[in-house]
Amino acid sequence: MSDPKIEGYEFKPGFSGMAADTASDQTMFKGVHWGKAMMWIFLLSDTFIFSCFLISYMKGRGSTPVEWPNPSEVFGLHVFGVDVPLLLIAIMTFVLITSSGTMALAVKYGYEKNRKMCGWLILATAIGGLTFVGMQAFEWSKLIHEGVRPWENPFGAPQFGSFFFMITGFHGTHVSIGVIFLFIYAYKTFAGHYDEQKRGWFTSIRGDYVEIEILGLYWHFVDLVWVFIFAFFYLW
Amino acid sequence: MSEDFKDSKAIQAQSSETISSGAGSSSPDLDYVRPAEVGDQDLYHGHSFITKWVFCQDAKVIGVQYFCLATFTGIIGLILSWLMRLQLGYPEAAGFMTAEHYYQFVTMHGMIMVVYFLTALFLGGFGNYLIPLMVGARDMVFPYLNMVSFWMFFVAVGVLLASFFVPGGPTGSGWTLYPPQAILEGTPGSGMGIILMCVSLILFVAGFTMGGLNYLITVLQARTRGMTLMRMPLTVWGIFTATVLAMLAFPALLVGSLMMMLDKLLGTSFFMPTILKAGEVLEYGGGSPILFQHLFWFFGHPEVYIVALPAFGIISDLISVHSRKNIFGYRMMVWAIVIIGALSFFVWAHHMYVSGMNPWFGFFFATTTLIIAVPTAMKVYNWILTLWRGNIRMNTVMLWCLGFIVTFVNGGITGIFLGNVSVDVPLSDTYFVIAHFHMVMGIAPLMVIMGAVYHWFPLVTGKFLSEKLGKWHFWLTFLGAYSIYFPMHYLGFIGVPRRYFEMYDSPYMTSAVGMNEFISTAAFIVGAAQFILIYNIIKSLKIGKAAGKNPWQANSLEWLTPTVPPEHGNWGDRLPVVHRWAYDYSVPGAKEDFITQTTPPSEVTDSKVEKT
Known about the structure:
The structure holds 2 protein chains of 2 kinds. By secondary structure, chain A is mainly α. Chain A is built from 7 helices and 2 strands. In chain A, helix 2 packs antiparallel against helix 6, helix 2 packs parallel to helix 7 and helix 4 runs antiparallel to helix 7. The longest helix of chain A is centred in the last third of the chain and has 33 residues. By secondary structure, chain B is mainly α. Chain B has a two-stranded antiparallel ribbon with strand order 1-2. The longest helix of chain B has 37 residues. Chain B is globular, with a radius of gyration of 25 Å. Chains A and B meet through helix 2 and helix 6 of A and helix 5, helix 6 and helix 7 of B.
């Protein structure tokens, strides 16, 4: 990564130079698109939401008097006569992380104005996300079948069900919203809205390939959050 | 839709020249400001009534919308406080009110005033109106999102007020909504009331996030040429820092509300311990009520500064303009705002001393709480030093500023009492606490709002507010507010508990009866006095004195628009170029006692301006 070139502005060296660059006029983050800066700050705020959820989970798990269920048993799958712990989760995580890869490639092809490749990769990302949500629905229904509810849990502490459904549900909502936007963006890419700088349907802002990177930021964030949820729920 | 746009090339900023060029200035190098980094903003201009005044994307209109709706909810909060005071002062006259009603009024008064009135008014109202104008932007960076933000707030207020009309009424659990009582039978509004409250808060947070992103990115990325961070007016600094706090604190409220809603609706036990009720064990069990308190106060304490920091910023500007002096210690003021904001995330458990905690935690939170007094005191000294030997205009705005300093110091000092664990424990849940937080985050920010209304009304409408009515308004409010809250400190010392519907015949509180009557009478008068402002606004809109351009002779950009009131796009066809900070008042050697931010250095070569 190299510094962006700003007409008439020289970046200054060292820490004091960094302070001067930050406090300079017009923009704090030189050359950063408004929408991109917005997404970063939104994600910071969203990080606090998920942190609150996960800290509440730790506190809830610590304060309940009933024993916490063993995740490798609860989340295990019985395949071909063998009990495999965490099989489904491993596949889900793999799919989601892979979709982050396709998203990154879509951003690259977007900036290269390669409309077709960009569109297909966004579509691949959307399908990856959809697969993830589908597998999550499968996992939810399996647990519900086995009697786990937000208010009760045959395997141990009822708080397990409460936190599990709430936090994975909140994350799943994030993924679903992302999937919806990915499909919309895939359509807009194929239809050439970014090449023609067509105005947005609601916002009336001119289309630009930077929008794909902004959505990409969101998508990578959702994946990153999943890694934490994975660690806290399935590995702890 | 494209016909709604002006040809954007026509309003492109002239990037290589400064505003003074063509005025025959002597040295162009002196006035050089580097060219614009980004092209001019492409704005959506509404043509119909709906797109111009209802679903409007102009930050100024959105600001006024926020202001009006917040004021409307604030008046409801005011009426609720009247009803509470009627019960406390003259219970025989309040026969229509049951204890349940009283608790509901307490709860709704608190929540409305803190979140839906003060937060919405400072950030949504003043933030939207002033940020783009003060940093020299054409509008907020995401006008559509900004519009949605307001209408989300509108829906949140609608849901909140709807809870008055559902079976069981609004929640009566106190504005802190502590579980388990908030959602258990026996607490008023434990059915639909608390659910609507949680839904409304979640909507508010969602709406606020949209607005907040706008304020932050406008300040960070859309300043005009020459507007460095350390040239921004303190109003912008205050609102900016408060928005950062809000973006990081509201998530905790959102999570807390959501979890409480699930406890109520789905029967989860996030916050619910095992509970015995009339000999029977309830379905709940294993949750932690303290967890909610942590989530709530992790939001709740920064919330105090979300209200206070914009007030600090605005008051600094008002004092500077109306005492014709630069703000004393500008950089110190900026850093104080930032430090107060950062510290406010490390003090939340001082609201929970009586909830029980490890003594070392109490020690930690007491220490951080008292440390906040340092930057806050610096700000107070700086305001006073700004006034010192200033050319003070004793107008209504200045009266509100002085009133603010007095009430804020007063409320701040009682805060030092309450920040100490050993002093707080006996005073907790008494009227001393009520007096403290009403002084410091009720009356003090309200004084700033009033000062700001009298100050910026000429900008928004082009008319002055009546000074005579303004002075009546001020003195009634100021003296009345002291009549209300000063005696409450005493009530707290003799141990009168807060949130009690009536005091019964307690032999050691006889002196509280007469005092409660006095406080209630004062509260009725002060409440009524606020309608002087509304009358003043309506009257001045019709027959007020025309203000013209820059009536206060201020320096900051909002007064320098080509048209007053500013129109959509703010700056006509050329963005302003900034050469200095906003506080060059009474500079030695200058022709006038103010040098606007857009005045190029070549025009003031004889005066001793500071380099900013």
